TrEMBL record:
<dbReference type="Pfam" id="PF03073">
    <property type="entry name" value="TspO_MBR"/>
</dbReference>
<keyword id="KW-0472">Membrane</keyword>
<feature type="transmembrane region" description="Helical">
    <location>
        <begin position="57"/>
        <end position="78"/>
    </location>
</feature>
<feature type="transmembrane region" description="Helical">
    <location>
        <begin position="140"/>
        <end position="159"/>
    </location>
</feature>
<dbReference type="GO" id="GO:0016020">
    <property type="term" value="C:membrane"/>
</dbReference>
<keyword id="KW-0812">Transmembrane</keyword>
<dbReference type="InterPro" id="IPR004307">
    <property type="entry name" value="TspO_MBR"/>
</dbReference>
<feature type="transmembrane region" description="Helical">
    <location>
        <begin position="87"/>
        <end position="107"/>
    </location>
</feature>
<comment type="similarity">
    <text>Belongs to the TspO/BZRP family.</text>
</comment>
<protein>
    <submittedName>
        <fullName>Tryptophan-rich sensory protein</fullName>
    </submittedName>
</protein>
<dbReference type="GO" id="GO:0033013">
    <property type="term" value="P:tetrapyrrole metabolic process"/>
</dbReference>
<keyword id="KW-1133">Transmembrane helix</keyword>
<dbReference type="InterPro" id="IPR038330">
    <property type="entry name" value="TspO/MBR-related_sf"/>
</dbReference>
<feature type="transmembrane region" description="Helical">
    <location>
        <begin position="113"/>
        <end position="133"/>
    </location>
</feature>
<feature type="transmembrane region" description="Helical">
    <location>
        <begin position="16"/>
        <end position="37"/>
    </location>
</feature>
Amino acid sequence: METRTPIRRLPDGGSILAAIGFVVLVNVVGSVPGVLSSPDTAWFRSLEKPWFYPPDIAFPVAWTLLFTLLGIALWLVWRSDADGRRLALGLFVAQMAFNVAWTPAFFTLEAPLVALGIIIALWVLITATIAAFRRVDRRAAALLLPYLAWVTFATVLNFELWRLNA
């Protein structure tokens, strides 16, 4: 008996525009706190940084790439009719809210310990979102793995900034 590989259709033009819309939306939402509370403050510049603190350009490059991957992942889940879609979307919104909350907590409030609590909660929500996305679309879950890796690094960095400056 011959097994056939299913043929995957390419997304149509409207679907591609929707995907681009999701990417733009996630990038806009993710960038709002950074625009409103610039890390270029005397307080932040005065902090002792750990040896592994990356160059400043790494942050906008990494976040643009990560928000783009998140937008694509969100689009994949949004267009699915799989069970668990609503939970996955709800978790995505929750983790995004914590992501957005981190910047003002750290830079505007100048509260690295508060920000550390937020980023730990964010990490937990990202892992839950990945698990929920995996039930809907494995590709969407895979697209969130670099985000989890970066937030893991950012959590360690946040901890060290707090520890070195407490």
